[in-house]
Amino acid sequence: MSARPQGLEINDKIRRPLRTPQHKFSFHILSECDMRPSLEPKVASVAENDIVGKGPIIQEDPAMTEGGAVWRKLDYHILPLMAMYFFLSFLDRTNVGNARVAGLQKDLGMSNKQYSIALTVTYVPYIVFQLPSNLILKAVGPNLLLPTMLTLWGVVTVLQGVVKSYSRFLACRFFLGLLEGGLFPGLVLYLSYFYPRYMMNTRVTAFFSSASLSGAFSGILAYGIINMDGVGNRPGWSWIFILEGLFTFLFGVFSFFLFPRSVDNSRFLSPAEKEYIKEKLLEDCDHKEEEGFSWSEVVEALRLPQLWFMSIAFFLSATTLFGLAYFSPSIIQGLGYTAADTQLMSVPPYAVACVVALIASFVSDRYRCRGIVCVVSVLLCAIGFAIFLGSESNQIQYGSLFFSVTGACMAAPTQATWNANNASPQTRRATVIAVGFVFSNGGGILATWLLGGSLSLAPRYTEATITLLVFSLLAALMCGLNMFYLRMQNGKKAERRKTMSREDEKPGIGNHSSWYIYNL
């Protein structure tokens, strides 16, 4: 028998955590997914004086046993790298908002319409490349594709700081979108190679929260960098692109040596730890073999109703997320702040959003309640927009951003995780993730025109705010419908399990298996 991580006992039938010095076991509610007959039965983890078999079926909480050390080791090696990637992605894509406040639009002679076109140009290749990029990532490996993307878009970011014409700025935005397009769906897919579904949301939010930090940090950076105005005969806004792009380039080169391709290629894991992780992935109702690419799986992914509920929710929520990311500096400046103060005042809403999003992700994973967290997050956005519309006070309108920014930053990672959780095997999941993000970035395109064009004028942005309020309510409806549909499907699977065994099912059906329980 292969070696196991310390703290796990093995016999012919069961595996259980060793007792702690206090002679108690930690516990966690067992999901329906873990109650299938083909796997080893689990022992209820209870206090020593409790009777095993009484009360709810429970399992060990991985974070509270020695097995949790394996997940912590993964977290320490993978999550900081992913967080930095996403931080730089969001920073390099949205720092144009800070540059605009610092004089970019004026110096390049752009109208509001031309500025919106520049943002839209970013999203066209961004959307087109998302599905191919996830399929390429699966073929060539994340250890090669992701660092290459990061290094090259660092170069493009630097070039944005040296262009002197609108047409060249457009070209830079196009290539930035092309190179960044596959990052978020690629990172979500990459995480699914290492973690069971019920552990995903905390990890996705952990790296996505770096986007909230970038929203806060970019304001601080811009506040300092614009003081370089005139250095090297360049305006302050150009140094925002040059310095931030240079750091991205250097980190991209360095990260070629950091990315493991898969569990088997993770040099920081022992053989026993690798086996433990792979077993947990199989126990999560995932496909047992690493299947090759199949167009039939792509088509099957497109037939999943839950994909379309979530894709619509992605579009609606992302319109809010990207609208705030690109235009919150302009919104804050419209409340009467100077350009320098605007950079600093954009920090607090995103700092709060980062903390709240992490707490929400913990709740989502701990209680496996993706849908409820999604609904609450978009309703927070709606509350923020309603306050902004209903008040004439600059202070209250600024305070409303804490609701809307927090809701937007909560919604995105939880929706992404929920979408990925309910599709299997890997090619089907890769397709579902990519399609969801295509819709998400469609929302990004709409946001650039909703707040940047002539449809809704500063400083009130009344029409845009009403639209985002309605979108938030519709996103809550889509998430609710998805919960209802998945609950109904789980009920049908439960009925099928009463009349059949797992051996009766044909292999390779992924999430259609009666033993694959959808996350709600």
TrEMBL record:
Transmembrane segments: 115-137, 144-162, 174-195, 207-226, 238-259, 307-327, 347-364, 371-390, 396-418, 430-452, 464-486
Matching PROSITE patterns: MFS
Keyword DNA damage belongs to the record: no
Species whose genome carries this gene: Lentinula lateritia
Membrane topology: Multi-pass membrane protein
Record key words, sorted: Membrane, Transmembrane, Transmembrane helix, Transport
Signal peptide (from-to): none
Residue ranges annotated for the Major facilitator superfamily (MFS) profile domain, each copy included: 78-490
Highest taxon in the source lineage: Eukaryota
Molecular function, one GO term: transmembrane transporter activity
InterPro entries: MFS, MFS_dom, MFS_trans_sf
Protein name according to UniProt: Major facilitator superfamily domain-containing protein
Compartment annotation: Membrane
One annotated Gene Ontology cellular component of this protein: membrane
